[in-house]
Design the sequence.
């Protein structure tokens, strides 16, 4: 079996109790070795653990950490046959999606995992998720793409979502089949349709003002929505809409503001609030009007993948018609 590199970024899996709750803690490699000694580690692939500095509580993670992760992968890509990224669960789906877009085509698997209960704590799910990710990273049938292993399932990274806060089965991909299921044996229901290739390790430029989300809800402020759409620093906006992509009309004022933003060059992507299903602009008159305003239907892309995709594409300097084309279709299997 090929050797695997495990990158520890922080998160619950390696945290320890403190008077103020769980906090990130160094020294995971030593604690992991002690646990692995009880887990028949001679039947697991050889691996090394690299702790990134500083460790991050995933709620504090910002896109600059994506560049750091990619840089570490780039420096070790030729040495290892697979990679496991230990990450906090709160933003794991964002990071997995972002790296799928940043790296592009892969010739080795990159697998995110973490835990709901820290390693070494009673009933912790950490060891099972770690062992699963290690075995998957070294398995010849595992797709060469960015994926997420959690609770005996392997999910496409840019399709995954955190769907439960208290359950150990915290992640799922509601609009896409699992890449693998780990029972008594590892089963792969279908081969990955993504093309393999040499990854792109180029960093992205960071602009915290470039991307925003406009959530739709009864009683929302039209004034605030118009102010956001008129912001000259805005380059991409995700419209988090009802059902199949329907917005309130506000007697046409919201559509006017969307149209003006589109004409100014802001990329507008419509994503449904529903856990399953897709945006279909045109099923209702309110949604159909978005086509006239230049809003792009996001299909069944998740909110996490939409944020990551916009951030990465804008961070690579993409704009105009090229950006619209990239948002309208699938780059790494993130939408149907």
Sequence:
């Amino acid at each position: 079996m090929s050797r695997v590199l495990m990158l520890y970024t922080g998160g619950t899996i390696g945290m320890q109790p403190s008077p103020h709750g769980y906090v990130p803690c160094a020294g995971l490699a030593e604690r992991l070795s002690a646990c692995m000694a009880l887990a028949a580690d001679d039947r697991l692939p050889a691996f090394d653990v690299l702790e990134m500095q500083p460790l991050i509580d995933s709620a504090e993670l910002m896109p600059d950490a994506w560049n750091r992760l990619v840089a570490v992968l780039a420096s070790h890509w030729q040495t290892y046959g697979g990679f496991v990224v230990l990450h906090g669960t709160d933003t794991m789906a964002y990071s997995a999606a972002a790296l799928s877009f940043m790296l592009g085509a892969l010739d080795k698997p990159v697998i995110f995992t973490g835990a709901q209960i820290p390693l070494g704590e009673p009933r912790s799910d950490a060891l099972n998720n770690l062992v699963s990710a290690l075995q998957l990273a070294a398995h010849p049938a595992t797709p060469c793409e960015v994926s997420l292993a959690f609770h005996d399932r392997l999910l496409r990274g840019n399709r995954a979502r955190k769907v439960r806060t208290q359950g150990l089965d915290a992640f799922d991909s509601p609009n896409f089949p699992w890449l693998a299921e780990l029972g008594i044996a590892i089963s792969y229901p279908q081969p990955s349709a993504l093309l393999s290739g040499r990854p792109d390790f180029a960093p992205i430029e960071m602009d915290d003002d470039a991307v925003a989300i406009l959530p739709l809800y009864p009683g929302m402020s039209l004034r605030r929505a118009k102010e956001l759409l008129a912001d000259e620093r805005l380059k991409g906006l995700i419209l988090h809409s009802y059902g199949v992509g329907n917005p309130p009309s506000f007697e046409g004022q919201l559509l006017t503001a969307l149209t003006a933003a589109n004409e100014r060059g802001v990329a507008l992507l419509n994503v449904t609030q529903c856990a399953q299903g897709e945006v279909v602009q045109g099923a209702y008159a309110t949604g159909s009007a978005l086509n006239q305003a230049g809003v792009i239907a996001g299909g069944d892309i998740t909110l996490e993948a939409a944020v990551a995709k916009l951030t990465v594409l804008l961070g690579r300097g993409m704009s105009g018609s090229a950006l619209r084309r990239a948002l309208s279709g699938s780059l790494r299997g993130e939408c149907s």
User: Anything to note?
Assistant: The radius of gyration is 21 Å.
